[in-house]
What does this fold into?
Amino acid sequence: MTDPLLETSEFDPAQNGEAEKEAPRRRYKLKDDTGFDEVPKKYRRFYRKWAGPNDELAPNEVICPVCKVVIRSARDLRPGDRVYCMPCFSRLTVVRSESGRLEARVLY
Amino acid sequence: MSVETVEIHARDHDAFLKEVHSFEFWFQSVEGYLASHPYGVDPSAPIPELDESEKEALIATLSTYCVGEVAALDGASGMIGFAPSRQAKIFLATQVVDEARHLEVMLHRLAELGVTDAEGEFEARANRNLLAFRKKLGEFVEAKDWEASVLAQNVILESMEFAAFHSHIQTADPRTAEMLAGVLKDERRHMGFGENDLGRHLAQAPHSRSRLQEIKKELDALVLATFEDSQKALGVPASERTGVGRLYLDTVARLGFES
It folds into this structure.
C-alpha cells in the first residue's frame, strides 16, 4: 500500500512551467536494487550512493550538494525541475552548470 | 495503486517536511541499516587485530568522537525544550536517540580495543578544542538561543563529524568502518536538518546573519583545529586534510556565511 499523497502517475516535472520544454521526457522504471537503505523502503529506489568523481550520472540523476547522495527521478531531469533529498530533508532545484552538467541547488 | 506510480519529487513541500520530521520516518529509515546489527556491526564479523600504534591512534580518535556525540546528545535534548515547532521537537527527539546510540557504539568499540573504563576515560583522551566547542554549544542551549544552537550543533558540529567520519572510513579497520558507516547515515539527517532549518530561518530573518557570522568565526577556530588534529592522528597526509574540511566550508557558504 502506498501513501495516497504520492499518487502521481500523471506527474511530469516539466508541467511547472519552469523546466525546459524540449523533447518528450524519457521515463525510467526505478527499481530498489542499489542497496541504498537510509530511507523507508518505499522510497529507496529514488536514491543511491555516490561512488565519487568517476561516478557517471544518468540523465535522471543529480547529486545532493548537502549530503552527497545521488537522487533519481522516474523521468529525465531538466533545469527548473524540483527534487527532494529524503536522506537529508532537502528540497532542491535542478540547474545547468557552466560545464553543461545538471546540478542541484538547495531551496530552503 | 502500484508502487510504480510513486514519485517522491512531485510532493508538496509541506507534506514532505511533515513526513521526514516524523518518528515513523525515522524508524523506517534506521530499520534499513541497523536491524540485526548490534552495536552497529555485523555480529558474525571478526574483530580485527591492530598493532599498538594503530590501537592508540584509534582510541584517541574515538575518544574525541565520543565528546562530539555527548555534545550533540546534551545539545539536542536541551533544544527540544525551546524548539520553535512540533516538527523540530520531534526531529530532535529522533536525533537524541541517534546520538545516544552513537555514544554507545563508540564506547563499545573502545571497550573492544581494551579500554577498561571507556566512559570514565574518553574525556581525558579527547581533543581539547572539541571540549571547548562543547562548552560553547552548552552555553547557547542554556540561553535557549535557537539559531545559534542550530548553527553550532546541526550545521558546524554535524558537518564536521560527517566529513571526519567519511574520511576515517576510507582507512579504518573493517569493524570500525562498519560502525562509522552506520553513524554517517544518521549524520545525513542531522546536518540536513540544520542546514535547511537555518536556511529557512535566515530567509525570514536576514538580520540574524551578521550575529551568526561572528559566532561561526569564533567556532571555526575550534572546529578546524579539531579537524586538523584528528586527521593528523589518523595519519591523513597534510595535502588531503583541506579536502576533508571542504564539505563544512561548502555548507556554510550555501548559507551565505563567509569563511
